[in-house]
Design brief:
This protein is α/β, with parallel strands linked by helices and 286 residues long. The protein contains ten helices and eleven strands. A hairpin with a 4-residue loop joins β2 and β3. 42% of the residues are buried.
């Protein structure tokens, strides 16, 4: 089976084959002053039509690579599909920029097709948790723990940091990914799309009723994810691009310049319909 990255790049290539797509305008990075804070975790790739795509920058030395002198100078004016291909072909900073570009091209397609993703109803990926459910959380989301437990659901958190492992009052933090097989619903950070662990995760969760990926970087086309068993994708939709970029560059919170959206497998129109709609709108434009 092909990788998620190669499938997403394949959709980008199909988009580009139907007509011109905007080139890369700029890459936006958080400042060093934001290091160690939530406001320093994401970069953005901007296309010439203003479309923005986000990506997590704290894997390995990615952020240091991006900040290296002259590392971004050659990207302005680059064909967006060419940069997007780095998501499937590279690691580190090039992969991060490639993923952000996939997300930016997704926003470009949605806008051209006139498609506005539904607003997210909450922070737990439309998982409809109840007593009797057992949620597997991939990566600890501290603000969500009380929200999950309030539903009556059990909670098991899969973490990489050994110092966090152990039983809590009403929930468990484990280093053993095999524990996810006991869970009927899964909530994961979208970073699994960047560190190439999604397929392994889904293999362990193949019996889960619902699988949600959430996070600012969850802005890609969901088709390959839905085909693999993901049921919802919750990302960030920038509504004020200029204010967003200003806040990002300043290392300040940018959430108020975006809204949380949720794509669900049941209601999503699909790439083919969106591509046809975008092509129709392009032909009708004066």
């Amino acid at each position: 089976m092909s990788s998620v990255a190669s499938d997403l790049v394949g959709l980008v290539d199909r988009l580009a084959s139907r007509g011109p797509v905007p080139a890369v305008r700029a890459v936006h990075l958080p400042p060093p002053a934001a290091d160690g804070t939530r406001d320093g975790e994401f970069c953005a790739v901007e296309l010439e039509d203003g479309s923005l795509g986000l990506s997590f920058v704290l894997l390995g030395d990615t952020l240091a690579q991006l900040r290296a002198p002259a590392s971004l100078e050659a990207l302005a004016g680059m064909p967006a599909p060419a940069l997007a291909r780095q998501y499937a072909q590279s690691q580190g900073a090039p992969r991060t920029l490639g993923f952000a570009t996939v997300n930016a091209l997704t926003r470009h397609l949605f806008d051209r097709a006139g498609y506005l993703p539904p607003a997210a109803g909450g922070s737990i990926g439309d998982l409809d948790l109840h007593a009797g459910d057992h949620l597997g959380m991939v990566g600890l989301f501290p603000p969500l723990v009380k929200q999950v437990l309030a539903t009556g659901a059990r909670l098991t958190v899969l973490e990489l940091r050994a110092e966090l492992a152990g039983a809590r009052e009403g929930w468990l933090v484990t280093l053993d990914a095999g524990e996810l097989a006991r869970c009927n619903k899964i909530l994961s950070t979208s970073t699994v799309l960047l560190n190439d662990t999604l397929d392994a995760l889904l293999e362990r969760c193949r019996h889960a009723q619902r699988v949600a990926l959430i996070g600012p970087g969850a802005g890609c086309l969901p088709d390959p994810l839905f085909a693999r068993g993901v049921t919802s994708l919750g990302g960030t939709w920038v509504v004020d691009a200029e204010a967003f970029k200003t806040a990002l560059h300043a290392g300040q919170p940018w959430g108020r310049f975006a809204r949380k959206v949720l794509l669900s497998r049941e209601g999503y129109p699909g790439f083919d319909r969106l591509l046809d709609a975008a092509h129709t709108h392009t032909k009708e434009s004066p």
